[in-house]
Design a protein that fits this description.
The protein is of the alpha/beta class. The chain is built from 12 helices and 12 strands. The protein has 2 domains: 233 residues, 3-Layer(aba) Sandwich (Aspartate Aminotransferase, domain 2), CATH 3.40.640.10; 109 residues, Aspartate Aminotransferase, domain 1, CATH 3.90.1150.10. It starts with 9 loop residues before the first helix and ends with a helix. The structure holds pyridoxal-5'-phosphate (PLP). The site of pyridoxal-5'-phosphate has 14 residues, from helix 3. One of its GO terms (molecular function) is homocysteine desulfhydrase activity. It catalyses: L-homocysteine + H2O = 2-oxobutanoate + hydrogen sulfide + NH4(+) + H(+); L-methionine + H2O = methanethiol + 2-oxobutanoate + NH4(+). This is homocysteine desulfhydrase.
C-alpha cells in the first residue's frame, strides 16, 4: 500500500486509523473479538491483557491525541487508575469545579489518608502555579464541567513541570478534534469516551493517552492487574462512534454557537457560559425552580444526565448532591446535539417563554 504524501489531517485520520492492513478479502474494520483466552505461544495470552477490538480503538484515539492509548471500562475506571499513580500522601491540585466523579474520588482518597487535595480556580493561572509547589500531580479539565471555565493549559503545564509535578488533562469536553493537551505539555490525557467519542449515548467507555513510554507501561500494568478494561463490544462501538467524531463535533459546535447567540438576549436567561467551541453550553436561570421547570417543559431536548450524544440533552446540575455549591442553583447544562438548530431553538424558546418573569 502506498504511503500518503503529507501528514494527514485529523478528519482523515479519524476515518483511516485503527484498521487492518489492506489485503484481499480482509474486512475493512477490525471485527469484534470475543475471547477470554488465546492459544499459547503468542503475545496476547489472555483476555485481560489484550484484545484486537481494544487495540483498534486505541490506535485510532492514540493517533488523534498524539500518544499511546489504553482503553478502560469507563471514564471513571480511567480516572481512578491514573489517580492511583500518586504515592501515599502526595499532593494533588485540581479545579474546585470538575466532573463530580473526579471530585468524589479525590475526596474519598483524601478521607482515607491516601493523598491531599488542593482546589483552585483554574482560570487563575498565577494561583494554580503557586499551588503546584510541592504537588505531585496537577489534574484539570478545560473547560470545566459544568462551569465552563477555561484554563491556560500551556502555562499550567509549564508551571507544574517547573515544580516537578505531572499534569493530567481530562479532555472529554473538547475531544482531540478541538484540543490536544499532549501537544500543549500535558503528560496524560484522560477521556470519558462515553461522551463525544462514542457519541451515541449507548456505551460506557474510558481512555488514557500518554506519549511517555514508561508511563504507558505502568498504566498498562495497572490495567492488566485491576482488570478495568472495556468489553470488546464496547471498544468496537467506541471506534464505530469515533469514525464520525469530527463531523459530530463540527455540527454540535455550530449549533451551540448559534444557540448561544439566541439565548443571550432572552429575558429568562441571566447568564450564558460558552467557551467559544464545543457542544456544551451552560445557562444560568433565576432559580432552581426556573431550571426545574425548563427541563420539564421541552419536547425535543431530553432531560438526562451525561452529554456528547447525537441527541440534545439538558440537566440542572445542582440536582446532584455532589455538585459543588459554588455552581449556581439555576445552572442548566445543555449538551447540544446534531439536530436542526431551528428545531432545537424553537423547543428551548417555548420552554423559556413559560418561565415566570
Ligand atoms: C462523564 C465524565 C466522566 C466520567 O466518565 P464515565 O464514562 O461516566 O465513567 C469524566 N470526566 C468528565 C469530564 C465527564 O463528563
Amino acid at each position: 500500500m502506498a504511503e500518503p504524501l503529507h501528514p494527514l489531517h485529523p478528519a482523515t485520520r479519524t476515518v483511516q486509523t485503527g484498521r487492518p492492513p489492506h489485503r484481499p478479502d480482509e474486512p475493512l474494520n477490525v471485527p469484534i473479538t470475543l475471547a477470554s483466552t488465546y492459544v499459547a505461544g503468542g503475545e496476547l495470552e489472555y483476555g485481560r491483557y489484550a484484545n484486537a477490538s481494544w487495540t483498534a480503538f486505541e490506535d485510532a484515539l492514540g493517533d488523534l491525541e498524539g500518544g499511546r492509548c489504553l482503553a478502560f471500562g469507563s471514564g471513571m475506571a480511567a480516572i481512578t487508575t491514573v489517580l492511583d499513580l500518586v504515592a501515599h500522601g502526595d499532593k494533588v491540585v485540581a479545579p474546585r469545579h470538575s466532573y463530580t466523579g473526579t471530585l468524589l474520588s479525590l475526596a474519598d482518597l483524601e478521607m482515607r489518608g491516601r493523598l491531599t487535595a488542593t482546589y483552585v480556580d483554574i482560570t487563575d493561572t498565577a494561583a494554580v502555579a503557586e499551588a503546584c509547589e510541592d504537588a505531585a500531580l496537577v489534574w484539570f479539565e478545560s473547560p470545566t464541567n459544568p462551569s465552563l471555565e477555561v484554563a491556560d493549559v500551556e502555562a499550567i503545564c509549564a508551571a507544574a513541570h517547573e515544580a516537578g509535578a505531572r499534569v493530567v488533562v481530562d479532555n472529554t469536553f473538547m475531544t482531540p478534534i478541538l484540543q490536544r493537551p499532549l501537544e500543549l505539555g500535558a503528560d496524560i490525557v484522560v477521556h470519558s469516551a462515553t461522551k463525544f467519542i462514542a457519541g451515541h449515548s449507548d456505551v460506557l467507555l474510558g481512555a488514557v493517552v500518554t506519549a511517555d513510554e514508561q508511563l504507558y507501561g505502568v498504566l498498562k500494568g495497572r490495567r492488566d492487574l485491576h482488570g478495568n478494561a472495556p468489553g470488546p463490544f464496547e471498544a468496537w462501538l467506541g471506534l464505530r462512534g469515533l469514525r464520525t467524531l469530527h463531523l459530530r463535533v463540527e455540527r454540535s459546535s455550530a449549533n451551540a454557537a448559534e444557540l448561544v447567540r439566541r439565548l443571550a438576549p432572552h429575558p429568562a436567561v441571566e447568564e450564558v457560559r460558552y467557551p467559544g467551541a464545543g457542544g456544551i453550553v451552560s445557562v444560568v436561570l433565576a432559580s432552581a425552580d426556573h431550571a426545574d421547570l425548563l427541563v420539564r417543559s421541552t419536547a425535543l431536548w431530553v432531560h438526562a444526565t451525561s452529554l456528547g450524544g447525537v441527541e440534545s440533552t439538558l440537566e440542572r446540575r445542582r440536582r446532584w448532591q455532589a455538585e459543588p455549591a459554588t455552581v449556581p442553583d439555576g445552572l442548566v447544562r445543555l449538551s447540544v446535539g446534531i439536530e436542526d438548530v431551528d428545531d432545537l431553538w424553537d423547543d428551548l424558546e417555548q420552554a423559556l417563554d413559560r418561565l415566570p418573569g
